[in-house]
Amino acid sequence: MARFLPVLGTFLMILPMLWGEDDSDIRNTASDGIYLLIIWIGLIGVAALLSRGLRAQGDEGARDPGREDR
Amino acid sequence: MPFNLLVLASLAYVIFLFLVAFAAERRAERGAVGWLRSPLIYTLSLSVYCTAWTFYGAVGYAARSGLEYMTIYLGPTLVFVGWWWVLRKLVRIGRQQRVTSIADLLSSRFGKSNLLGVIVTVISVLAATPYIALQLQSVTLSFGVFASATPDGWAKPDSDVTSIWVAAGLAAFTILFGTRNLDANEQHTGVVTAIAVEAIVKLVAVLAVGCFVVWGLADGPGDILARVDASQMAEWHMQPSRWTGLIFLSAAAVICLPRMFQVLVVENSDERHLATASWAFPLYLMAMSLFVVPIAVVGLELMPEGSNPDLFVLTLPLSQGQGGLAMLAFLGGFSSATSMVIIAAIALATMVSNHIVMPFWLRMRPARVVSGDVRRLVLLSRRLSIGAVLALGYAYFRLSGGSEALAAIGLISFVGVAQMLPAMIGGIFWRGATRVGAAIGLTLGVSVWFYALFLPSFGADAVISARMMAEGPFGISWLRPQALFGVDGMDPLIHALFWSMVLNTGAFCLGSILSFPGPVERVQGAAFVNVFDAEGTGPRGWSRGQADAEDLLVMTQRILGDDDSLGFFEAQARAQGKAGYLPDPTPDFIDRLERLLAGSVGAATAHAMISQLAGRAAVSVEDLMAVANEAAQIMEYSARLEEQQGELTRTARQLRDANEKLTQLSVQKDAFLSQISHELRTPMTSIRAFSEILTEGDLPAEMVAKYGGVIHAEAKRLTRLLDDLLDLSVLENGSVQLNLDLTNLRDMIDRAVAASSHTRPERAFTIHRDLTSEDMFLRTDSDRLTQVFINLISNARKYCTADAAELRIVVRHKAGRVTVDFIDNGTGIPKDKQDLIFEKFARLTDQTRAGGAGLGLAICREVMANLGGKIGYLPGQWGAAFRVTLPLRLEKAA
């Protein structure tokens, strides 16, 4: 899931490119901006949730011997 | 606002940062790291990504090209949200290999090749120059805005003067905190803390201006949205190529920018901080860009036609009479610029000194590795590099005229650093990537960038003539800088990004497939790609036993300083089960030493330095197996065997050492017994003879007095010998009575020097002391301690072989313990005897019958043990050297 998140994020972020191509290239900047902000906040939220689980997982190998031998 | 008040405010702010950095450094020195190394500070320090370009430029960018400014923050968001893929691996590799910079990472991955280090360093310096110029420009512009508002106070100096002062001030700050010491981990706690403070300042400033604009000037978010649709921003067209291209570009830049790499990987102290940063840093970016559109929209509406949108953050509050808010905004912009320049200068200076200056110096004078003071040279070269980097930025600022839009300069720089992406990603995910591929790819990519984007950025006719831009060099139309291979009509930035990345990646892959990696490269490749599997079992490239431990120690001392290197060697010797300061030069030990040195001077340089002492690195069979063999079972089995074998070797080594010592001792003891019988018999014989003569009587009075005197002197000699023996046995039993009192160390040394002055008084003998460092009060048994000092000084007087004998007494105080070193300039003590000199009856030579029976140092050792300290021989000092260590306050044993 953690690996999938950036892929999903990329897809959602380049999605606005496909909108409004038909009606004379003029788009609604304000609503685009709000859409991007919502995606942004969503990504941050999911990442925050995931990081809890991953942190516990990463704990085992997190301390390496290399840096502590002096 | 008057210009002088502005200067005063900036100065006060800088002094505040100084104090923060200084306090953090002090705390870290005392070992109380605590919150200084917390995920919060780590995340905040990552905000060096948000430079003055973000702070001022984003609003201008939004005013010119609508929502496109968001791409610059969406790219990093994706990278951080996907930290499990790339960042985690980078940080792990960085910690395991003690990487000091991005150039170090690439050079280390591709066989510790210095060529790659040089290429990456040159790219980074080239790409950072416009960026640093950008920061200078923004600070200068913001000064200009403030100062032009009111004519009173000092006259505003012209912008050249301002920028040169800013550049010099930044150089001074960076040098002061970035190059204070040469740390093996290359971490700068003070600077990072100051950067974190600046991160808060700039965030608060942007949010304050944003809130003022949304709720003060407009009527809340709804009104802003209506204004956006009514403004020229609504006419913005999203160009798909630019949108995706810029997201990719900013994602690449966030891991490849030297300053980001510095805070992300090098300054990382705990991998788990990354988990917090994965959401907190995108949150920070979002907060920074949240109010960009409102400020841009309201600015376009309210500000007079033709005012620079890059400065709306500053000019908008100012035009509304909000002086305080504008001041906050000014400090925010100032923070963004300074934090970027400081970190970038540190990162670049490390790269320049490790990959260009040091290898060059090593090649010039290879013999001096063991004698010159490398440490000072490294620091000096870093300081000069910082100055040079800032000077380059200043020069670019002057050359480019400082008139372009901020965003354009920043993006040019991004495309430059993005060239490192293929080599870096390939290096950590693809074992087949080779040095040749990386070098060709990097060179090709950078050449395209330089030709198609960097040079044209100076403007038409500045470097490339307008005719060449239009028709191509020598009229070759498919080489036109902004339409390579006839691809016309593309946005120049995306055009350069596309071609440089395509050619770079293509050449990298092709070169890697067609070339063959060397052994060291292969080993490093496996270590990098499989960093999570091969925990701790790094590659071992060193063959056994060619290096002398003492030479290695001397070399390490030149880089890390005496204390750190002695500490490291002692710890390693203890791990091998040996006492003293010199471990056996096993491949394992040399490998660890190399990584330690790599933390200070970079992998390639450390490798080269050790190669000079240890001979060429050879790749052992185990390494090749580790590279080629996927059969984990065999590996595990052999690892277990190896572990057992290591254990056995260690035990055997201890036994061998003990046995050797015993044999030597037994020989010495026999020698001593005959010696002591002789020492006892000589006085006895004369006493007997003279007393016989005396008993016969009939002697003149003066003869009686003379013979009596002889008997008395001989009896005294006997008593002294017996006293020594008794003293030793009492000390060894630990039943000695200590008289603890508070005495000045200087007085004790004074007394010792005076008391030992009658030993060989005919010799010229100089003693160097540092009286101020000696001035401290110790709670200890002063008579006993003085006895030890007398013994050491007399020994130096007796045995120092130099013509002009000198003795250096160095006193240091650290963490409640005092060390006193006695170092003379004689020939020192041969290695095989160093273990023995503290044993009873030990004497190095038979000819030195100057003193007692070889009990002096043995007594010293026992005295120090009773005083809660120790005495040891200090190797690697070009003379005999003894170190006495004792506690500052000796508590009486219960």
Explain what the structure shows:
Chain A is mostly helical and 70 residues long. Helices cover 64% and strands 0% of the residues of chain A. Chain A has 2 helices and no strands. With 894 residues, chain B is mostly helical. Chain B contains 34 helices and 7 strands. Chain B is elongated. Chains A and B meet through helix 1 and helix 2 of A and helix 4, helix 5, helix 10, helix 11 and helix 13 of B.
Uncertain residue segments of chain B = 151-155, 535-540, 847-851
Give the beta-strand count of chain B: 7
Q: Percentage of helical residues of chain A?
A: 55-70%
Count of the separate structural domains of chain B: 5
Report the average pLDDT across residues of chain A: 67
Q: Give the terminus-to-terminus CA distance of chain A.
A: 38 Å
What is the helix tally of chain B?
A: 34
Radius of gyration of chain B: 35 Å
- The whole-number mean of residue pLDDT values of chain B reads 80
Distance between the termini of chain B: 70 Å
- Globally, the shape of chain B reads elongated
The poorly predicted ranges of chain A are: 21-25, 59-70
* Rg of chain A (C-alpha, Å): 19 Å
**Which oligomerization state do the chains in this entry correspond to?**
heterodimer
Structural class from helices and strands of chain B?
Answer: mainly alpha
CATH superfamily of the largest domain in chain B: Sodium/glucose cotransporter
The CATH class of the largest domain in chain B is: Mainly Alpha
Fold topology:
The complex is a heterodimer of chains A (70) and B (894).
Chain A: H1 4-14, H2 29-62
Chain B: H1 3-29, H2 39-45, H3 52-65, H4 71-81, H5 87-96, H6 102-109, H7 114-149, H8 159-178, H9 189-217, H10 220-230, H11 240-256, H12 258-266, H13 273-290, H14 292-302, H15 312-319, H16 323-364, H17 374-399, H18 406-418, H19 421-429, H20 435-454, H21 466-471, H22 492-514, H23 519-529, H24 549-560, H25 562-575, H26 587-601, H27 603-614, H28 621-628, H29 632-696, H30 701-733, E1 741-744, H31 745-755, E2 765-769, H32 771-774, E3 777-780, H33 782-799, E4 805-814, E5 817-824, H34 856-866, E6 870-873, E7 881-887
